[in-house]
Structure formats: structure tokens, C-alpha cells
Amino acid sequence: MPALPLDEAGKYVAAAYLVFLALVLIYVAIMASKLSRIERELGELNEIVDRRAAEEDDREPIAR
Amino acid sequence: MFGRGLKTLSLLTVVLLVGAFALVFFYAPNDADQGFIQKIFYLHVPLAIVALCGFVAGGVYGILYLRSGDRMHDLRSYVAIHLSLILAVGALITGSIWARASWGHWWVWDEPTLVSFLIVFLLYACYQPLRFSIEDPERQARYAAVFSIVAGAFVPLNFMAVRMAQSLAHPRVLTTTGGSMPGSMRLTFLISLAGMACLFVTLWKYELASKHTSFQLKRLKRKLAGDEDAWTPNPRRSAAPQL
After folding, report:
1. Which among B86, B207, B214 is the nearest to A23, CB-wise?
2. For the whole model, what pTM was predicted?
3. Is A26 exposed, middle or buried (CB count within 10 Å of its CB: 0-12, 13-18, 19+)?
4. pLDDT tens-digit map of B125-147
5. Which residues contact B52 (CB under 8 A, 6 or more apart)?
6. Cα separation of B41 and B26, whole Å?
7. How many whole angstroms separate alpha carbon B81 and alpha carbon B103?
8. B215–A contact, CB cutoff 8 A
9. Which one of A1, A7, A18, A19 would you mutate to disrupt binding with B, by most B Cβ within 10 Å of its Cβ?
């Protein structure tokens, strides 16, 4: 086949580079959602540790 | 642990990829035969090469896992194959776009390079379901390592077989004689390849760091759940390695 004119070839080239960009962006978006899950779970764990620390503080005077 | 050097690597990846794309559109000349459509080559070929190297790397980590029993090697192998699959999807799609513009067809079934790459892709597409089908983490890691080694060995064999086949319509740009690219095109291609390789390593380390953090968090949860009645862990079946 003869070489495509620039205006027609440009569409294909743009599509190929956009596919690459989309793949990277989708990957980053998935990783971002995983990161936010880790952040949420860390927050939950922090709450548990804080609650425990508060409970231990409440119990201390009774033990004495 | 895995996050070490990630910032530098990320910056290097951005510089290389932006530089490569700038060279593609402002420095490398248009191909005499194909014209502007040949610019896809600077994206499609590095994607395919890095994906195939990633599959082989997955096999190498599979060997290391079987030799040492270290679960981190299983994780490295899993992430390498997982990322290579994503890059392989990119190589298949960009290749199809190029084929449509250059040959007038989205896919050509009697072209060994295309079909062999598809076979490799479909082979590795079985990796995740294989892992997911095995519940015991120890067996899952062992079987996955064996799969990654066998499939990893198939990649260069397949590559050589295609090279030895009668050359058909798919262009050959990387040859033992150095190919037929002029210096400016070769420089652009090599920088694109370096950028793609850096992107792979950056995302690989990024995902390893994420998965490792997630496992550490699960361990912490389990420790807390040991004497925490209000909170119970919810173990889910997963294709990802369990550390």
C-alpha cells in the first residue's frame, strides 16, 4: 500500500499514542484506588489502637 | 523496601519518555516508504520488547523462588508478568492500528510475528486464572513459578522460530547487521526503548511497594485481631501472592 497522507496517518498515530496514555492512566487510577484503600485501613487500625490506649488509661486508676 | 529509589526512577522515566516522544515528532524523519504512520513503530516495538523481557524476567524470578522458597521472588515474578500483560495489550492494540493503516487490515492471521505474539499473550493470560484456581498459597506459588519458567523459556524460543521462518509482511528493524535505520531514527528508537524499560521498572517497583505495604498492613491487622474481638480480618481468595 502507498504511504497514507499526513491528515489520515495522523489519526492512526494519535490513536496509538492515546492508547498508550490511556493504559498508563488506567493503571495509575487502579493503583490510586488501592492506595486509598490502604490509607482507609490504616486509619481504622489507628482508631483501634487509640481506643485501646484510652481503655487502658481508664482502667489504670482502678488497678491502683 | 521497594520504594527505595522510586522517586529518581520516576523522574528518569518521565524525562526519557517525554524526550523520546519529542524526538519522535520533532527530530526523527518520516519513513520514506511508510511516511508518518511509521511513528507508531517507536511506541509499538518498545512495548513488545519490554513486555517479552518482562515475561522472561517473571520466569527468572520463578527459578529464584523455586531455589530459595522466598515468597518475595514469587511476588516479583507475579508483578513482572502482570505488568508485561498490560504492555502486551498495548503492543497488540498499537500493532493493530499500524496494520490497519499500513496493510489495510486490523489483523493478518498468516503473519507469524503477529500470531506468535498473540499465542504468547494468550499463554500468559492463563497465569492469573491458574493462580486464582489454587487456594493453598504454597502450592499456588510453586505451580505459578513452574508456569512462569516454562512459559518464560517459550518466549525466546518462539522469537527465534519466528525469525527463522520465511520473512513475510511484518517489518524487520532489529537485525544482526544493525538494521536499516538511519542514525536519527535509531537514536529515537533507543531512547523510546530505554524510556519504556524505565517505565516498566518504575511501575514494577511501584506495584511491589504497594503490595508489600498491603501485606504488612494485613499482618498488623492479624496481630491486632489476635486480641481484638471487635475487629476480625476478612481473608479473600486472591491470585496475588500471599506473604
Report:
1. B86
2. 0.86
3. exposed
4. 999 999 999 988 899 999 999 99
5. B84, B120, B155, B159
6. 15
7. 31
8. no
9. A19
